[in-house]
User: Fold this.
Amino acid sequence: MKRTLKAMGLTLILSAPITLGQIALAQVIVDPIPQVRQHSQTRSAEAVFNRAMALNEAPLTVAQNYSQEEEFRAFQKSDYTYWDAAVLASFWNQEVLEAKSRIGRKVLWSGNDQSALSMMLVDARVKALGTVDALNLYSQSDFTYDDAAALAEYWGDASPYESKLRIERNLVLGNEQAIHQMLKLTDR
Assistant:
């Protein structure tokens, strides 16, 4: 009975200005949560906070919305590379720009604790290693056929194609700098 009256009251409050020909902005006023439930929720929040403090973690916060510019800046300042974004973009079925933004958002949300993002990157790399034959990252890189031929000779690969596959695997794993260093060691 009490709920029916509240619902009728809410209906009247919301419809009264409309019936009088006025524009109304609906404001729903919710009754306070019963004391017992409120106490248990407060206690739960305190328990979460105390547990986080005991584990030397930051307490949970509400996710904040950031502009795309802030997300890109966070991505650029992070330790994540273009190749990480490319691997995650494939994993998330997104464009690389969208993945960079998403990585930046996750960096901003998580602060120093980026373990969830790191785990996603591992999963994405494992999946990407299964598709190295497509040479998706190699084709996006600045490595040339001559680079692949020189590395094939240096690594003892049977052909430049085998070297391209190895370059692809290293790009997936985030080892672009190591490839460039090895290129310097070749006799070309």
Confidence is low (pLDDT under 50) at residues 10-43, 57-62. The radius of gyration is 27 Å. Residues 14 and 98 are 41 Å apart (CA to CA).
